[in-house]
Amino acid sequence: MRMNRRSFMIGTAGAAAGLAFGGGAMPAFADATQLRAMWWGSPDRGKRTVAVAELFHSKNPDLSVIGESISGDGYWAKLATGMASQNIADVFQLEPSTISDYSKRGACMPLDQFVPSTLNVDSFGKDVLKLTTVDSKLYGVGLGLNSFAMFYDEDMFKKTGLTPPGPTTTWADYADLAVEMTKAAGKRGYWGGPYGARYNYVLDVWLRQRGKSLFTEEGGLGFGVDDAKEWYSYWEELRKRGGTVSADVQTLDQNVIESNCLALGKSAIGMAYSNQLVGYQLVVKSKLAVTMLPREKKDGPSGHYYRPALIWSVGATSKNGEAAAKFINFFVNDVEAGKILGVERGVPMSPAVRAAILPTLNPVEQQTVQYIELLKDQVGTYPVPAPLGSGEFDQNVARPVADQLAFGKITVAEAAKRLVEEGATKLKRKS
Prior knowledge:
alpha+beta, D-Maltodextrin-Binding Protein, domain 2, three-stranded antiparallel β-sheet, TAT_signal, Bact_solute-bd_prot1, periplasm, signal
């Protein structure tokens, strides 16, 4: 696979942009079967993916990969277009919160037919494979383990003399710390942390700490209006105390690194996924550190669980399913590919790859591995798969409701009612 340097494009927010390689300018591979790959992520992720695809082609001259990195919500729009036109990419990226939704909507090809002849996942463990199994069929392969996390600007904490958050930090502790950081930093347009009401994955942890869940086995919401009121009240109070970024900053966040308030230099703390530390550190000049999300009680459950950081699935409309499965197998099992990928998409699932890359990791990458190790006695059971419609619940209900609340257009009570009622409708509509 060759990358056409001219195909690098700078796009607007939410548009297909960032990295596109291959395109139609690949005469050297005219006789090779071409696979289309599609993902989202940082430029660093794109470079690593391109390098692995090139390595794959060098070892499989009859197969080449062309691909596209798409930023923001543009990714899901592109996937929807592919589904509507029956032209889904051969290999495309999903995450734990979307694999159930999209597999049930017919986007993903079952991979069981390729196991173990083409796709070797024996070393991953049955529990790990459950994370990408929906209705007893394997619809994706996890690319690495991660969990939710808080990143913080270690340099800023040293500068201000404040003690950074840690594994036993409670939500009450965090609120006080975020407010103190805003004051201590003394920078205009700079705050302690994000307006986290917008993050479904943080709500997920919050609920699990309280014996609740984001979704039920039946595919409905696992919480009620009172739970939502408590959630929104926390973030609204913290916003009014000055501990969160302003509404206009938070609404810029498209769940990608570049638009997060920490990456934008607007806060000392960010909430994200542990594997993203590598990408964050590439765009943040200060030294970053990672710890767990706050918990309800110091000795209470963390709410954390191991999850596949990201997932490769094969498009249901692909005419090259076996070749696509071969590429995925290479991606997760080849040691040289593993050294290229590092832990940018999470700690490798394969024990052999994990052992091979550990000596090659830089200090930032080692932090992500250490974080996964830190969690081994803290994680709980994996939740039920996200139901059909969960993506719409996140993008079209949870985020807009949180934004309207932050801008003062609705009250906490109205936000809580809308989250539950409109959220339930989205899920019901898709069931």
